[in-house]
Amino acid sequence: MLDKIEGGLFGLAVGDALGGTTEFMSERKIKEQYGRINEIIGGGCWNLTPGETTDDTDMTICVLKGIIANAQNPINEIGKELLRWWESDPKDIGITVQTAFNFYQGDWFQAAEKAHDELEGKSAGNGTLMRCLPVALAYSDPKKIDEISALQSQMTHYDDLASEACVIYNRIAGRMLNGEALEPAIQAEIKPTRYALSGMRQPDCPPDGYVVHTMEWVLYWLLSTNSFEEVVIGAANMGNDSDTIAAIAGGLKGIEIGFRQIPSRFTDKLLLKDDLRTYAKLLYEMRDNPAAWNN
Ligand SMILES: [Mg+2]
How many A from CA of 140 to the centre of ligand 1? Predict the structure, then answer.
């Protein structure tokens, strides 16, 4: 279980670090400039240090720390962590998250609704899907996974599409942590939803920050490939919202194969690798142990 939890966190961070180089680029531009990205090299529009991660990993850690601080009722603590992160002036921050922070005055759900109005009803970004994985890693109770996955999304993203995606994603992660294989876990959770399983066909939508498009691409990379490398490298070389799509897909693939099977040339490179191992251990100790919950 610890190997799977570590695999989830590292899989996500590796996807983020790899795809950070190509974020907002077109597939053609990536080919011209890099040929193909196979390694974590940094650079890109954020001028990343090799191994540096972005908001995907940062906000995932915020959710994780919030849950550890108060597992029974983590929303306030997650909020505190997100504000602390925002005050650190991060390089990469999504428009919906940014707008919700601007409106926050003590009530997250109100802030999210105001952001939704300000953005003229467009609050179904992928900013909450990118950070939700610790919920499935921390809780084994499916009801708790559903509840906290949705609430952490509704704090900044008013649109139900965003929270629905988080619930589906973490249900898949939960099944895998319980020993199910990746593909049947996806099949079981996707079938009753809006998402069509395109299988080996590339989705006919751009790999952008709209959560429905993000999810389509995540599913495509997970179902059309065989190895962790193919998932994260494939997503990274598509450009657009590449860091987030690689991170979200990498998180599930990482759970499937476990930390030890993720190539060490990726994991060794991550600037946050020591922190991630510590956090994974904390989640592992908390999971299945409600006595360790503070409230
Ligand atoms: Mg990012």
Answer: 28
